[in-house]
Specification:
This protein has 271 residues and is an alpha/beta fold. It folds into 2 domains: 102 residues, Ribosomal protein L30/S12 (60s Ribosomal Protein L30, Chain: A, 2-Layer Sandwich); 160 residues, Alpha/beta knot (3-Layer(aba) Sandwich), CATH 3.40.1280. Helix content is 35%, strand content 18%. The protein has a 7-stranded parallel β-sheet with strand order 8-7-6-11-9-12-10. Strands 1-4-3-5-2 form a 5-stranded mixed β-sheet. Helix 6 packs parallel to helix 7 and helix 6 runs parallel beside helix 11. The structure holds S-adenosylmethionine. The site of S-adenosylmethionine has 16 residues, from helix 11.
Length: 271
């Protein structure tokens, strides 16, 4: 079993990986600098470890060591045990799910390799909300999408909140990040994908009439502005999920991007 290391000082430098987990800017730079990410809760930690991510360390209250004993058996990294108050002081909030793990990020595949064997893709342009990204991965996993491609600026699926909301689906659905926003869609088209741009614009082709072809990629836009005009112009077809007349009359002119992804994935997987 991994060595349990008691810690009592929230300022202990060995706990630096777990500092202020809700501070998005701090976490972005810290995680990029050290090539790490944080998983929270037994189920998610098991999935992360099970998909080959090396463990840097774990941090938990002593009572969580027994339920995780089988996992800790195979871990060759320190397991820091501390009072709840110490964990809270480091992380910046009460960690209800028990254990935290710091894991090593694995290199992402090039987009061309990722999509080589895929038929159904989601492509996310510049989503900013980590919970939305995590939820979309959960939809993708649940509905059988083969892979997810991220624009260069899209929010990180391995941010703690994204992992948590996805229930670990970010480890189940392969993904890659485009190097180049401007030419990224061209490369997908060359790989044989029909590019369907999901837009709330009700003049677009209704989802049920969209021509998907053998290989299809659904493009989803950011929470505020939606897809950029460049990606809309690059797509083979703009596609809308019809909104009710009543919704439009009441000024509800779009769906949340997660709801749009779920409806569109469901339709895509039946096509
Ligand atoms: C909140 S919406 C963005 C709204 C933005 N004002 C626009 O015009 O696109 C975020 C994303 O969800 C998808 N979406 C939302 N409602 C949709 C609908 N009715 N049909 C198809 N896609 C939709 C689109 O991909 C959109 O870019």
């Amino acid at each position: 079993m991994a060595q349990l290391v008691p810690v009592t000082d929230p300022a202990d430098p060995r706990l630096a990986d777990y500092t202020r987990l809700r501070d998005v800017n701090l976490r972005k730079s810290l995680e990029a600098e050290h090539g790490l990410f944080i998983a929270e809760g037994e189920k998610v930690i098991r999935r992360a470890v099970g998909t080959g991510h090396p463990v840097r360390s774990l941090l938990m209250a002593r009572r969580w060591a027994d339920p995780l004993a089988d996992l800790l058996d195979g871990v060759d990294a320190p397991v820091y045990v501390a009072d709840d108050a110490v964990v809270e002081a480091v992380a910046g909030f009460q960690v209800h799910r028990g254990a935290l793990a710091s894991l090593v990020r694995l290199p992402l595949p090039p987009v061309a390799d990722l999509v080589a064997g895929a038929r159904r893709l989601l492509v996310l342009e510049d989503l900013v909300d980590h919970a939305n990204v995590g939820s979309i991965f959960r939809c993708a996993a649940a509905l059988g999408v083969d892979a997810v491609v991220l624009s260069p600026r899209c929010a990180d699926p391995l941010y703690r909140r994204a992992i948590k909301v996805s229930m670990g689906a970010v480890f189940a659905v392969p993904y890659a990040r485009m190097d180049n926003w401007r030419d990224g869609l061209g490369a997908l088209r060359e790989a044989g994908f029909t590019l369907l741009a999901l837009t709330p614009d009700q003049a677009a082709v209704p989802l049920d009439d969209a021509k998907t072809g053998d290989r299809a990629a659904l493009l989803l836009g950011s929470e505020g502005d939606g897809l950029t005009s460049h990606w809309l112009a690059e797509a083979d077809q703009p596609v809308c999920i019809p909104m009710s007349a009543q919704a439009m009359a009441n000024g509800v002119d779009s769906l949340n991007v997660v709801a749009a992804a779920a409806i569109a994935c469901h339709a895509l997987m039946r096509a």
